[in-house]
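Notes to self, Inhibitor of growth protein N-terminal histone-binding domain-containing protein:
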Amino acid sequence: MSFIDEFQANLDSLPGILQKKYALLRDLDKSLQDIQRQNEQRCEQEIEEIGKGVRSGNITLNASLIRFSDDALDEQKHSIRIADEKVALAVQAYDLVDTHIQQLDQYLKKLDEELRCERESAAASAVAAPSHDGNMKAGRTSESGRGQPAKQQQLQRIQQLQRQILLVWI
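result:
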């Protein structure tokens, strides 16, 4: 299996993998929003109860004694854990796409270098190739032209893969 075929197979699975990660991100985001909303309500209720206690004289207004409940603090810690998990998932998705792009860039550089070498070789052999009558012949030799279409097709296919990666990422 050629690099391009293998890369295409990996690329074909990329949208599904990213969709799963994004779905999990959406679920985590919904969960985070629910917990934050619940925590806001809890804190508002606790502030209201503290205010009632101060107004009734049951609680003195001492800042060191006024604090949120352990439940409210636990909810906030849980929110932070979910947010951290969301960041980790986003980084995984980014790294996955970035890895594909880097692989493709490396292959493109290699292919460009091969094409450049072939062109230089073709130019050198065209200048040095003698004709049947013993004179120097200018132009492309049949051997140098053979590999070009395949390389150009590979280059075009790689460029298509790059566009697919960008479409998947967007």
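- Confidence is low (pLDDT under 50) at residues 136-145.
- The two ends are 29 Å apart (CA to CA).
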